[in-house]
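mind reviewing these tokens:
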Amino acid sequence: MADENAPIQLTPDQAWQRLAEGNARFVAGASAHPNQDAARRESLTEGQAPFAAIFGCSDSRLAAEIIFDLGLGDTFVVRTAGQVLGGASLGSLEYAVAELNVPLIVVLGHDSCGAVGATKQAAETGQMPPGFVRDLVEAIMPSVIASRHGAEEGSVGVNDMVREHTRQSAARLVDQSKIITEAVEEGRTAVLGVFYNLRDGKAELVSSSRGL
């Protein structure tokens, strides 16, 4: 017999619609702040069933649960500076797909990204940053180069590069993970690239592994 209290499994389209509706509330200043009370907290003690995974930049202005008006247990969130993929982040997202059955992964970039800005500067000056920040820059560099290819010098700004990096990160996520690739091919999961505007709070779809 099916568990009547089990959460309803959303399709990728429904999951994105829920995120889009939450973002619209946030932009309008009408956030509902769902699933943040004691009852919700208690209901999650035995497990979790998030309806989406969000892989975003670590920037303090990019709190996914706030900009999509979400609460406890709604999303599985992974963050690195410049949403740079690595073994730990990739494994975390594979866990979300394989074990938590999330129907949607959102790769979330944003305007004025410091990590992408540092990469742009390195590309223009030839000077790489010190320490492990260099690892971030090296990972983002292909996106910066691709965004500048064929464009007039100085015509491509940081935000254009962020959009390209968000698209490339979403594509790379599918390319590098057999688990995620199979889920996408079977229609169980979709991978979206989303660009967030800091000033107006809008989340803009920039790429999709399917026609969302």
Q: What stands out?
A: The two ends are 33 Å apart (CA to CA). The domain at 12-31+48-208 is CATH 3.40.1050.10 (Beta-carbonic Anhydrase; Chain A). The helical segments are 12-28, 38-43, 64-67, 87-98, 114-125, 133-148, 158-176, 178-185.
